TrEMBL record:
The organism's taxonomic lineage, starting at the top: Bacteria, Pseudomonadati, Pseudomonadota, Alphaproteobacteria, Sphingomonadales
Gene Ontology annotations of biological process type: amino acid biosynthetic process; aromatic amino acid family biosynthetic process; chorismate biosynthetic process; quinate catabolic process
Active site: Y23 (proton acceptor), H101 (proton donor)
Organism: Erythrobacter mangrovi
Alphabetized CDD domains for the sequence: DHQase_II
Gene name for this UniProt entry: aroQ
GO MF annotation: an example: 3-dehydroquinate dehydratase activity
Physiological role: Catalyzes a trans-dehydration via an enolate intermediate.
Keywords, alphabetical: Amino-acid biosynthesis, Aromatic amino acid biosynthesis, Lyase
Site (Transition state stabilizer): R18
Family: Belongs to the type-II 3-dehydroquinase family.
Quaternary state and interactors: Homododecamer.
This protein's record includes keyword Lyase: yes
Protein's UniProt name: 3-dehydroquinate dehydratase
């Protein structure tokens, strides 16, 4: 069975309590359970992880290449708007990456309008709350 990495960046471990008016009340564990159920129906497995450290995200992107992952769903959090290292890693790995956001960064503060992740990702799903992950997983499974 093919594996899809679901990588989450800084502060996403605080979902459920962090600015629920923006990010909702679901926790990352809630989203993981939803994706596990969906993955079974789609015939794929997910490997879901979270870190607050940019270099760890880069290492995990490299690992996705090394293990032959089918795709990566990447919610890089604030690193989306700052990390050229993530941009370079996405370009280097040869694994399709779909950018994921619970909110719609283009409708938020101006500094969130740039996406270095989006410069290399094959697609993006944003602004659907936890459903953003579900839609992105369906897209990744269909690749």
């Amino acid at each position: 069975m093919q594996t899809i990495f679901v990588l989450n960046g800084p502060n996403l471990n605080l979902l459920g309590t962090r600015e629920p008016e923006i990010y909702g009340s679901d926790t990352l564990d809630d989203i993981a359970r939803m994706l596990d159920e969906q993955a079974k129906k789609l015939g794929v497995t997910i490997d879901m992880r979270q870190t607050n450290h940019e270099g760890v995200l880069v290492d995990w992107l490299h690992e996705a290449r090394e293990v032959g992952a089918k795709a990566v769903l990447l919610n890089a959090g604030a690193y989306t708007h700052t990390s050229i290292a993530l941009l370079d890693a996405i370009k280097a790995i040869g694994v399709p990456v779909i950018e994921v956001h619970l909110s719609d960064p283009s409708q938020r503060e101006e500094f969130r309008h740039i996406s270095y992740v989006g410069m290399a990702a094959i697609d993006e799903v944003k602004g659907l709350g936890p459903r953003s992950y579900s839609v992105a997983l369906a897209k990744a499974a269909a690749l």
